[in-house]
Amino acid sequence: MNTTIHKGTALITGASTGIGAIYADRLARRGYDLILVARNRERLDELANRLTTSTGRSIEVVVADLGAKADVRRVEDILRRDSSITMLVNNAGFGGAGPLLVSDVDKMEAMIELNVTALTRLTYAIAPGFVARGAGTIVNIASVVAVAPELLNGVYGASKAFVLAFSQSLQHELAAQGVRVQAVLPGATRTEFWDIAGRPVENLPESIVMSADDLVDAALAGLDQGEVATIPSLPDAADWNAFEAARAALGPNLSRSQPAARFGVGVA
Ligand code: NAP
């Protein structure tokens, strides 16, 4: 489908395959020009050519390893300089399935570099421009392990809990200045993620695995509906709202001058 509505440019990280490549397809069809970022040039070029032909949008490819400082800085520069950018999709990431005692700590550090540090730096690079222009959208791909860190590798879960908390804080700080923030929390999704994590997706029950197409379509519908956090498989949004309400209910007691009575501190 060709579209003539121009929505500005979306920069998508991890766009060479999986969820990021589907975002590229859907956003081009919605009228965005694209900047596609990942390491695999061949895949990026192939996707860019296909989407240019099918949508007529302008699509730029940036080959970058977001685990490498110099490459992250290069993408930061693009985000600072290109005022046509109206959307950032922080999607690049990888996970693991192994527990702490069998996980290589260097790999855990690399996971934090990509899932947390690069995502943070790219957000810092774009946010001032969005605020100055009074508009912009930041989509951060987290995971359901953000709220269920026992399911897979703990560092992976913790990295995605960071993405969720960071997104909620961003929404809190920037919404009034015209910036939309959404955290997407996919459950198991059929991509190469699972091969890289060391647990082939074929080993999971089919009933818990979503296609990347459905995942992205639901996430974009959630964005359209104004959700700050979207779990594409969650049937009733009231469940998430109840989870958030429980968090908010802790508020008045999160910081007080005295320890709680149940600790017996200061009791003679
Ligand atoms: P995927 O198919 O493995 O795709 C990952 C993408 O990230 C690829 O385009 C890859 O491209 C890119 N990437 C990986 N390392 C990179 C690096 N160092 N620098 C730049 N780009 C890099 O996985 P996916 O399932 O689409 O994952 C996308 C996001 O969804 C991740 O943040 C993941 O944690 C999250 N997620 C996935 C699932 C799931 O079940 N699949 C569930 C919850 C959350 P290159 O190899 O070309 O660099």
Please explain how this structure is put together.
There is one protein chain. By secondary structure, the chain is α/β, with parallel strands linked by helices. The protein has one domain (9-263): 3-Layer(aba) Sandwich (Rossmann fold). Helices cover 46% and strands 15% of the residues. The chain has eight helices and nine strands. The protein has helices at 18-29, 41-55, 69-81, 105-133, 154-174, 193-197, 212-224, 237-250; strands at residues 9-13, 33-38, 59-63, 85-90, 136-141, 179-184, 189-190, 210-211, 229-230. The chain has a seven-stranded parallel beta sheet with strand order 3-2-1-4-5-6-9, sandwiched between helices. Strands 7-8 form a two-stranded parallel sheet. Helix 5 links the parallel strand 5 (136-141) and strand 6 (179-184). Helix 1 crosses helix 7, helix 3 (69-81) runs parallel beside helix 4 and helix 4 runs parallel beside helix 5. The longest helix is centred in the middle third of the chain and has 29 residues, at 105-133. It is globular and about 75 Å long. It starts with 8 loop residues before the first strand and ends in an 18-residue tail after the last helix. The structure holds NADP nicotinamide-adenine-dinucleotide phosphate. NADP nicotinamide-adenine-dinucleotide phosphate (NAP) binds at residues 13-20, 38-40, 43, 64-67, 91-95, 114, 141, 143, 186, 188-189, 191-193, 196.
